[in-house]
Each structure stands twice: as structure tokens, then as C-alpha cells.
């Protein structure tokens, strides 16, 4: 075998093969490092690939894990615990995608959706690793978030030596990665530019796909059109990105594409996943609703052996990422080392239920039989099992006026609450919020958050929902309690007209204990700081509305604004 260096990680000695060059079929070479035990023999390999830079991932050997709100938390150190991987007798292969880090080639557009398919590169890399004398031919993959998405993209290409994958916190529907309910989310800016504690992409040759396919004249017209959105025009970073996209190419492309469609869907891992037949373990923690949604959607598409593990709140795991390794190594012990440890005898779906802190298992999602029941918004900020009987002339709408954050730092919130629950009340699944609302502009955001509030005032976020008012159209996938919006066009609102807006409430699992209340909060901007936001990186918020808007929320006999929530059958009967 080739020579290797040794490094110390505490009391552990680790062999490392630095800057290996892996040839791609088009002649470009990718750079990887390989870490393994000092005994010179072949082992199964776990591959971690991203655009964040392999040298950043090496900090896992020297940086103790940090959790939010630590200022040392860096969201891009996601390749896993190198020392633990080596201790478990695997080769940890960490590398740079083309156009980034020490690799060659160019990355055109987010996830190279305008260039060489990333799955093609990953296929070539996996097969190269399998042929190396230090690998025994059994290959898996490792890593959270971006690294998790790359696993799905790789598996869809069916490289012969990729035996299984373990995906934690991946991003699947690329439109929903950035536009939640049509509302722009800033977290992808951090991953691409490096802001709010994230190192971001290790740029070497990354290019805007929009700039590749449009002439300068066409692009200027498109930029001018995008700047006519008052939300975009009021936000300094977005104006700067649109006027000066150099070194912000990927974020520029996202800002320029605010509608769903081919630009996002052509490389959507959910679509590609129909080709996957190897074993897949999907793991995600509650509190990052859009990724919980994506993991469930992916689980339902997969045809081979599969697991879905929905863990506990809060959502932001340590960086360097070390969580879930025990589960991962059980998975790979079975599929890469051939040890029958019983993991495939266990139920396919495992869900942590907040409140009761129980783990519910089943063969499908949701893991229990559910019944959708409405909770109605009522006067005096109440949530009730019964609808309002008074007409609009007596049940006057709740209202709030939100000034743009350019002139205020106060986010207005209107809320409704149940009475304290008398019995443990369990909800598991996806929900919906039906709001009959009138606004005095042609657009706004609806941001809804559901909380479990204890008798002492302590509270925990249960789930969220987002909807840009102009994206209110529903498509034919919509069912009771499970709405879908196509987001393929924006339909301005007629000011002064009452419209029904249906928000998708992301999947969740929670039991409300006796004495606890369910509180729902509605705003059009996110609170600047609260118990949930403090757990998130500074850039994990949504684009505020850039104009003053008055909102009226009707909840009378003719306008039955309500939540539609997934009560498990047992507790639905108890609360009947």
C-alpha cells in the first residue's frame, strides 16, 4: 500500500493519506483525504463529500463539539467524528466536490445543477475508493446536511460498491430548502457565503448558472424585475447580491429564482430517489420542519430496505457533528461488515414524542392511527373545539399592524390558546392552519408557530408553518390536514378582500401533559429573539416583509379560521 502519515488524536494514533487525487471520467480530479487505523490492511470505507473544504472537516480531530448558542458552532463541520470512525475500524474518506477546496473543475449553479451531475462524480469516486488496497470493497457514506444530500444523489446513480447509506439532516426538495411556503430563508446564504458562524463553501471555481444561461442584457432585466419586490428591495444584503453577484454566485441564483419549477426540480433528490435500491437509514431531529417533511417524503419514495428515525428537539446538533454515530455504526456493522446485530428485526419507523418523551415505533409514518380534528380560533384569543356561532358583525376580527423592520424593531404577534388540557393529549403527523384574512397590500407573509406552554410559563416549540400570501394556491396533492402549494406562480392579493390561506404545519410529534396549553402565534415577520431562535445560527431567519401591512384575521360563523391537527385515535377519543 501507499505510504501514510500518522497523527495523534488524544491517545489515538491515526493514519492519514493526504491529498489523494481521484480521476473523474472527464479528466478532472477530486481531492480527498483518507483516515484509518495504523494497521496496514483493507477496511470498509465511509465517504464524506461536500463543498465546504476537507481541511475544515479535519478540525473534528482538534475542536470539541459545540452546541448552539456557542459562538464557536460552525455549521459546515459536518463530516462526522474522524477519531470515532477510525476507532470503529473504517476508513474515513473526506473530500471536496468539483470546483471547491483542493479539487479541480468548475461547479456551475447550486449543487452543480448547471454542470457535471454530482451523482456522476460521486459514482466515479465511490468506485475508485472501492478499488484501493486500503478498502475492502464495501463502501458507505457519512455526514449531516449537505453531506447527507450528497449520499442520496450518489445512491441514485447505483454505484456497484455503495452498499448502504446513513443520511442525517439532508436537504431534499431544493426549493423548500430556501423558500419555506414561498418565504425566503436566509440559512442557505450562510452555507454559501459564510455568515453567522458558518464557514461556507470553499470557493475555487464556482459560477452562477443564471449568468451562464442569460446574456448580460437579459440578466439585467431579470435583476431589475426581482428588485421590484419590495421585500427584496428593502433588504441590504439582497440588493448588494443582485447588484454585485461576484463571489456570491450561488446565493445570487437562489435569490433570482423565487418560484419552484425546473430550475429546482431537475436535480431534486426526491425525484432521483426512485432509482435507489440499496439500504437507506434516514435520521432527522424535530424543530427543522422542512427537513422532517423531506425525510418523510424520501422515506415514502424509497423501495429498498429503509429506516426513518425522527429524534428529539432541539434541531441544531453539535459541530463538529458527533450525534447519531451509535445508530450509524449499528447500521453499517450490519450492511458493510455482515454482522447480524438485529437491526433489521426492529420496526422501520422510530419517532420521539415530545412531552411524554416516549419513542413510538411502527412500520410506517405516521406511526399511529390518527384523526384530524379542528381547533377553532375564537374571540378573546381562545382556541376551542367548537366553532364560533356569531357573525362578523359581532365577532370582530383580530388584527395587527406590522411596520417594516427598517423603521421598527418590534415584531407584532397575535396569539390564541386552548384551555389547559385535562388528560395527556398526543398529536403525531402533519397539520394545517386555515386562516381567513384580509390585508391592505398585495402580499404579506404568514408565519405561524405552535407552542407547548407549561403551567409555570415555560414553553417549547412544537411546529411551524409559513406561507407567502401570493403563493396561496393549493395543488391536487392536498388532503385534510396535509396541504401542498405548487409555488410555481405568484398571484397578488386584492387589498381589502377576505381570502382563505392554508398553511402547511410541518410534521411533529408531541404529547401535551395535563395542565399544559397549546398556544398558536401568528406574525408576518419572525421574532428577533426568543427561546427557539436562540438555538439557531444568526442567519436562520426569513426575509421580512418590506412594507407596512395591516392584517385582519376573521374567525366568525362565516369564516371558520382553524387549526386542523393530527390527534392519535386514543387521545382523540379521550377529548371527544
From TrEMBL:
Protein name, UniProt field: Xaa-Pro dipeptidyl-peptidase C-terminal domain-containing protein
Gene3D superfamilies, sorted: alpha/beta hydrolase, Galactose-binding domain-like
Molecular function via GO: dipeptidyl-peptidase activity
InterPro entries associated with the record: AB_hydrolase_fold (IPR029058), CocE/Ser_esterase (IPR005674), Galactose-bd-like_sf (IPR008979), Xaa-Pro-like_dom (IPR000383), Xaa-Pro_dipept_C (IPR013736), Xaa-Pro_dipeptidyl-ppase/CocE (IPR050585)
Hydrolase listed as a keyword: yes
Residue ranges annotated for the Xaa-Pro dipeptidyl-peptidase C-terminal domain, each copy included: 329-564
Source organism (scientific name): Thermomonospora echinospora
NCBIfam families on file: CocE_NonD
Cross-referenced Pfam families: Peptidase_S15, PepX_C
Keywords recorded for this protein, A-Z: Hydrolase
Amino acid at each position: 500500500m501507499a505510504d501514510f502519515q500518522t497523527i495523534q488524536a488524544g491517545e489515538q494514533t491515526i493514519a492519514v493519506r493526504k491529498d489523494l487525487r481521484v480521476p473523474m471520467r472527464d479528466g478532472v480530479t477530486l481531492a480527498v483525504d483518507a483516515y484509518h487505523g495504523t494497521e496496514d490492511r483493507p477496511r470498509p470505507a465511509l465517504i464524506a463529500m461536500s463543498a465546504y473544504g476537507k481541511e475544515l472537516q479535519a478540525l473534528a480531530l482538534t475542536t470539541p463539539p459545540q452546541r448552539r448558542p456557542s459562538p464557536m458552532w460552525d455549521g459546515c463541520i459536518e463530516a462526522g467524528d474522524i477519531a470515532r470512525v477510525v476507532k470503529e475500524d473504517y476508513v474515513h474518506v473526506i473530500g471536496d466536490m468539483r470546483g471547491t477546496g483542493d479539487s479541480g473543475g468548475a461547479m456551475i449553479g447550486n449543487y452543480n445543477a448547471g454542470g457535471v451531475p454530482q451523482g456522476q462524480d460521486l459514482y466515479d469516486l465511490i468506485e475508485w475508493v472501492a478499488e484501493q488496497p486500503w478498502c475492502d470493497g464495501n463502501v458507505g457514506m457519512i455526514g449531516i446536511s449537505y453531506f447527507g444530500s450528497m449520499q442520496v444523489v450518489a445512491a441514485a446513480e447505483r454505484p456497484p460498491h455503495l452498499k448502504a447509506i446513513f443520511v442525517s439532516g439532508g436537504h431534499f426538495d431544493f426549493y423548500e430548502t430556501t423558500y419555506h411556503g414561498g418565504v425566503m430563508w436566509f440559512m442557505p446564504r450562510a452555507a454559501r457565503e459564510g455568515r453567522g458562524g458558518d464557514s461556507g463553501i470553499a470557493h475555487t471555481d464556482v459560477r452562477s448558472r443564471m449568468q451562464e444561461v442569460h446574456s448580460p442584457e437579459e440578466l439585467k432585466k431579470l435583476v431589475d424585475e426581482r428588485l421590484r419586490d419590495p421585500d427584496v428591495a428593502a433588504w441590504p444584503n439582497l440588493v448588494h447580491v443582485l447588484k454585485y453577484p461576484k463571489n456570491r454566485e450561488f446565493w445570487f441564483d437562489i435569490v433570482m429564482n423565487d418560484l419552484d419549477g425546473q430550475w429546482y426540480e431537475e436535480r431534486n433528490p426526491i425525484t432521483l430517489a426512485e432509482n435507489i435500491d440499496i439500504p437507506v437509514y434516514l435520521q432527522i431531529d424535530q424543530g427543522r420542519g422542512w427537513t422532517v417533511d423531506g425525510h418523510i417524503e424520501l422515506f415514502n419514495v424509497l423501495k429498498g430496505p429503509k429506516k426513518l428515525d425522527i429524534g428529539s428537539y432541539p434541531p441544531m446538533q453539535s459541530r463538529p457533528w458527533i450525534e447519531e454515530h451509535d445508530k450509524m455504526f449499528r447500521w453499517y456493522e450490519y450492511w458493510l461488515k455482515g454482522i447480524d446485530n438485529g437491526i433489521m428485526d426492529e420496526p422501520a419507523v422510530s419517532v420521539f414524542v415530545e412531552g411524554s418523551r416516549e419513542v413510538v415505533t411502527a412500520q410506517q409514518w405516521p406511526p399511529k392511527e390518527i384523526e384530524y380534528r379542528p381547533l377553532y380560533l375564537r374571540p378573546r384569543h381562545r382556541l376551542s373545539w367548537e366553532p364560533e356561532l356569531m357573525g362578523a358583525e359581532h365577532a370582530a376580527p383580530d388584527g395587527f399592524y406590522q411596520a417594516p423592520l427598517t423603521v421598527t424593531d418590534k415584531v407584532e404577534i397575535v396569539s390564541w390558546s386552548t384551555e389547559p388540557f385535562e388528560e395527556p393529549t398526543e398529536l403525531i403527523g402533519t397539520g394545517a392552519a386555515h386562516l381567513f384574512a384580509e390585508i391592505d397590500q398585495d402580499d404579506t407573509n404568514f408565519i405561524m408557530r405552535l407552542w407547548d406552554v407549561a403551567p409555570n410559563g415555560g414553553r417549547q416549540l412544537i411546529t411551524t408553518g409559513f406561507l407567502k400570501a401570493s403563493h396561496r394556491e393549493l395543488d391536487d396533492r392536498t388532503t385534510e390536514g396535509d396541504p401542498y402549494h405548487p409555488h410555481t406562480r405568484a398571484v397578488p392579493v386584492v387589498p381589502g378582500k377576505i381570502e382563505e390561506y392554508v398553511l402547511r404545519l410541518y410534521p411533529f410529534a408531541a404529547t401535551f401533559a395535563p395542565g399544559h396549553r397549546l398556544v398558536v402565534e401568528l406574525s408576518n415577520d419572525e421574532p428577533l429573539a426568543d427561546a427557539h431562535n436562540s438555538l439557531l445560527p444568526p442567519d436562520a431567519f426569513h426575509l421580512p416583509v418590506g412594507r407596512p401591512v395591516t392584517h385582519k384575521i376573521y374567525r366568525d360563523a362565516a369564516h371558520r379560521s382553524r387549526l386542523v391537527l393530527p390527534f392519535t385515535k386514543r387521545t382523540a377519543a379521550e377529548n371527544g
